[in-house]
Fold this sequence. Notes:
It is a single chain. It is globular, with a radius of gyration of 17 Å. The protein folds into 2 domains: 8-19 and 88-214, HAD superfamily/HAD-like (Rossmann fold, 3-Layer(aba) Sandwich), CATH 3.40.50; 21-87, DNA polymerase, domain 1. By secondary structure, it is an alpha/beta fold. It has helices at 21-34, 42-46, 53-61, 66-83, 94-103, 116-123, 149-158, 172-181, 195-199; strands spanning 8-11, 18-19, 89-90, 107-111, 134-136, 165-169, 184-188, 205-207. The strands form 2 sheets. A 6-stranded parallel beta sheet has the order 5-4-1-6-7-8. α1 (21-34) packs across α4 and α3 crosses α4 (66-83).
Amino acid sequence: MLMKKYAAYLFDFDYTLADSSAGIVKCFRIVLERHGHMNIDDYTIKRTIGKTLEQAFTIMTGIDDPQILAGYRKEYVREADLYMTAFTHLFPETLDVLQSLKKQGAKVGIISTKYRYRIQELLQPLLPSDFLDVLIGGEDVHAAKPDPEGLLMALQHIGVPTDEALYIGDSIVDAQTAQAAGTDFAGVLHGMTTRDELEGWPNVAVMNDLNELLSYD
């Protein structure tokens, strides 16, 4: 697979740069079982990765009361403060690909529904503090993906036009976000979304792993 070079490569985080599924499953399961939701399997939990916590809890429980969902979210965040970083690891090629893109002069950033401080906690020991050109977390936007607010905010911050940026993610939500922002999209098959599902949305590539970002036209 060959693709053009971009001025900026902007990434989703969960299931794109890192596998945090073990931590996510653990934290969701603690909260769910605390409230009597006992029969939700790991696959169902993993399929919600990339959505907001409230959306995920609604999908799994059918509850749509904002007050209850806000309480579940707060409980999840408390559990994640204990477990998430320890149960998260970058995919094997992540650091090499990010560093290669930077060496070639590209801007590199992350736009995720995950909280910014939690991403920073994981990356701090692995990358220089000024490595990322932009990092937008869930607490930085008013509207979550697939609303393009975070992606457009990142592009404005780094001064790159939409047609010179590539957004990379593992889910349909990521594809929808890129489409809404007017950027190109590349899917990566690290997560629970299939090739057929990703190829159903506009894309320049659906990749087995991030190394394919370094194969240029």
